Amino acid sequence: MTRIAVTVNGSRHEADVEPRQLLVYFLRDQLGMKGTNVGCDTTSCGACTVLIDGESVKSCTVLAVQADGSEVTTIEGLADGDELHPMQQAFHEQHGLQCGYCTPGFVMAAVSLLKENPDPTEEEIRHGLEGNLCRCTGYHNIVRAVQAAARAGA
Amino acid sequence: MSILGNRVRRKEDPRFLRGEGRYVENLPLEGALAVTFVRSLYAHAAINGVDASAAEALPNVQVITAADMDLAPYGPPPFPGLNTAMGRPLLAGDRVRFVGDIVAIVVSGDRATGADAAELVMVDYDPLPAVVRPEDAAKDEVLLFPDAGTNVAGGSGSADHDPALFEGCDVVVTGTLDSTRMAPCPLEPRSAAAEVGPDGRVTAWLSTQTPHQDRMVLAGTLGLDPAEIRVVAPDVGGGFGAKMLNVEEILVVWLARRLGRPVRWTETRSESMVALPHGRAQRLDFTIGGTRDGKVLAYRLDSLQDAGAYPSLGAFLPNLTALMSSGVYAIPKIEFEGRAVVTNTTQIAAFRGAGRPEASQAIEHALDVFAAELGMDPAEVRRRNFIPKDSFPYTTVTHAAYDSGDYEGALDLVVRSAGYDELRAEQRRRRDAGGPLQLGIGVSSYVEITNGIDETEFGEVEITPDGNAIVRTGSFSHGQGHETTFAMIAAERLGMPVENVTVQKGDTDDVAKGTGTYGSKSTQIGGAAARGAADKVVEQAKQLVADYLEASAADIVLDPALGHLHVAGDPAVALSWADLAARASADERISELKADHEFKSSPTFPFGAHVAVVEVDTETGRVELQRLIAVDDAGTLVNPMIAEGQVHGGVATGASQALYEQVVYDDDGNPLTGTFVGYAFPSAADLPSFEAVEMETPTPVNELGAKGIGESGTIGATPAVHSAVLDALSPLGVRHIDMPANGENVWRAIQEAKA
């Protein structure tokens, strides 16, 4: 067991973790934060995307010990109380989600994308999100949502 | 003004956007043991023994094998014609039949220990020759079920050939199309949990599309009274036809009862790629004949369905292919023969379209080949064969009774929306210029069937003491947005804001009955049932209001704009739903504001036409899908935003079958596409934005006028995209490209045409 200290959505957590513990299972099983979903086991689908120190990562491919000392933002940390984050609001307005399973990862990846490139073209959005997979939407309305969020200055 | 037809934003969105989705793996289940399945690494092998001693030496690990199993083999499902000698043992005992067959179960305190223990279970296999291709299985040389004496798992149509079928045809052409095996890939892998309560009843939380049916099948399989089982489908992260009860869910419930402890299994993705049933996998051999001026006179289709290792729904699907084989065309003579055979591969069941894409792909490709033979534009040959708009209801020679349609109207609309003539002009320019980047244009027309087996759905509406409404539906939603559309349907009848209506589904203790969701039937029967229940509540409310206002119920009317009930002509003395509910609660008459309704109807036949535009690099074989213009007519739309979302997702999957996805096995039955790395699941970068064009031709079979929309896009897109690739390469002499038309297959086709 290794002792780590991670700040998740503004709250500091100290915990003992197995060296093999993945960040996503640390969040889900040890901290009980179930918002970050697991969709594959090969770093392909991006359902588990979170931000570490503001940058998107697939939390299935980061060891909990690697997150020691960092700030993690998950989907649960995005809204401001009752008010959705502009990216969440854009996904809602543009019908960018159906079953909702890939949604937390897409929203986090899109937040990170706009941070790097606040005014992306459609092609830049599509390539920027190619590490996230969705079976329901055909990506059409996800792209619209990111465009809308960019217009709203998210 | 009615709320129906408006783009109402979804009521279910906030919990998903906030990371509060209630998927099975997210549910709290105190002290649940982890279930890990030990799966076969061989496609076909005899089992000599299982040694679990090393695994059971780990702390709190228990291993269960076939020796512990007291349940009979599962399946095949009770469809006519399926070979009942091919049931699937819940735990493989003496033989495994595909990579992924379950040999043993590890029960452990946590998932990581379960994974470690599963690797320590030593299975002594004796490999057997594997039969992987359906055409090999059909030879009956290697038998999966020696006692059955054959690999044939099901059949449809007739083996009889009419020697005069193509008599009178000027032109007869033949061809073959493989409708490739696909993995459904819902983003949430399956998950199942179960717990026996203090009263002895077992509750099963399942990631499923069909909670009520699952309850009945669980009861039958486990030898229980259905009343002893509660099935809860909480939030489900996509299904696409694949998430119906299978052996894993049965085993989880069986374990909970056997161990007296709560248990949970959550599939890994790599496990899901081999264990969750696949779809399609039909080989289609066609012959089509007609006149020189493009009139089709006869069509023969032979389908060889790969059923996978144990016949499931897939073995029955050629029946749907047969039913829909005429497509949108008036074809005077059709012959169909379907055979399903078992192979040492993952089971085949339903996947978005389920039997209808195969029919559409076959007839559309056959028409393209026929058109090419005649030197006729593919859009024109379609026009010459459409079932005319004024001939509905129309029954095909394969006995499909089409309810309503305007096939030529759909083609005209999509051709116009695409700018078809300009596209052809651009194609000519590129061909004349002779560069490597050539344009291909594909056209498809399709009709499909939803609510194909005349099902009945249950709906219930209840007014709550605060004057809001609850809709309970036996339909299920795993992304389709029922919490919004069904609320809209009830709100419209009740004259209530949609915000005041809550939709409940998925819990067999809360919803009295149901069939679940598959085959794109939810709105047309489930929505119609909710509508009927709401109407009954309004009638019952009128009686109550009549009592309170000392009037006759026949004189009470509902003002749908305000949601007020009053005597006709006297709106000043009115009761709102809130007034009425408060008063009825106080009088203990609130139960009178609750009603259920069952709605049954014949199938509907959504239809449409798609145009696909691709650019093909004739030097490398690379294909880029540039545009996909889709007219999908599903009758009257309750919520066009949600309907369009269904089209987008459907089109993406349809295009992806044409260009990217295929489950591949090697000759020994080893899956080569067993992860998301190996399987070509498209990303946003692989697809364009789609151009969905609205068209609404109502059905007469329900009062909503609604047909199904969930699968149409898939059915229309594959033939259009595949045809576009062939169209781009036709000047090079390419006549056939296997799906998926990826770089490799396209490059090979170009080289073969050159040779």
Topology readout:
The complex is a heterodimer of chains A (154) and B (755).
Chain A: E1 2-8, E2 11-17, H1 23-30, E3 49-52, E4 55-58, E5 71-73, H2 86-93, H3 103-116, H4 122-128, H5 140-151
Parallel strand pairs in A: 1-5
Antiparallel strand pairs in A: 1-2, 3-4, 3-5
Chain B: H1 13-17, E1 33-39, E2 45-51, H2 53-56, E3 62-65, E4 95-96, E5 102-108, H3 111-120, E6 122-127, H4 134-137, E7 152-157, E8 171-182, E9 191-196, E10 202-206, H5 211-222, E11 229-232, H6 247-259, E12 263-266, H7 269-275, E13 279-290, E14 296-308, H8 318-323, E15 333-342, H9 356-374, H10 378-383, E16 394-395, E17 401-402, H11 407-418, H12 420-433, E18 437-447, E19 456-463, E20 469-473, H13 482-494, E21 501-505, H14 522-549, E22 556-559, E23 564-567, E24 574-576, H15 577-586, E25 594-600, E26 607-617, E27 623-633, H16 640-659, E28 691-693, H17 712-729, H18 743-754
Parallel strand pairs in B: 1-12, 10-11, 14-15, 20-21, 27-28
Antiparallel strand pairs in B: 1-5, 2-4, 2-6, 3-5, 7-15, 8-13, 9-10, 9-12, 13-14, 16-17, 18-26, 19-20, 19-25, 22-23, 23-24, 26-27
Helix pairs in contact in B: 9-17, 13-14, 16-17
Please explain how this structure is put together.
The complex is a heterodimer of chains A (154) and B (755). Chain A is of the alpha+beta class and 154 residues long. In chain A, 32% of the residues lie in helices and 16% in strands. Chain A is built from 5 helices and 5 strands; from the N terminus they run ββαβββαααα. Chain A has helices at residues 23-30, 86-93, 103-116, 122-128, 140-151; strands spanning 2-8, 11-17, 49-52, 55-58, 71-73. In chain A, helix 2 (86-93) packs across helix 5 (140-151). The longest helix of chain A has 14 residues, at 103-116. The N and C termini of chain A lie far apart (40 Å). Chain B is an alpha+beta fold and 755 residues long. Chain B is 28% helix and 24% strand. Chain B is built from 18 helices and 28 strands. In chain B, a hairpin with a 5-residue loop joins strand 19 and strand 20. In chain B, helix 9 (356-374) runs parallel beside helix 17, helix 13 runs parallel beside helix 14 and helix 16 packs across helix 17 (712-729). Chain B is globular. The termini of chain B are far apart. The relative contact order of chain B is 0.12. The model of chain B has no long low-confidence stretch (mean pLDDT 97). Chains A and B meet through helix 2, helix 3, helix 4 and helix 5 of A and helix 1 and helix 16 of B.
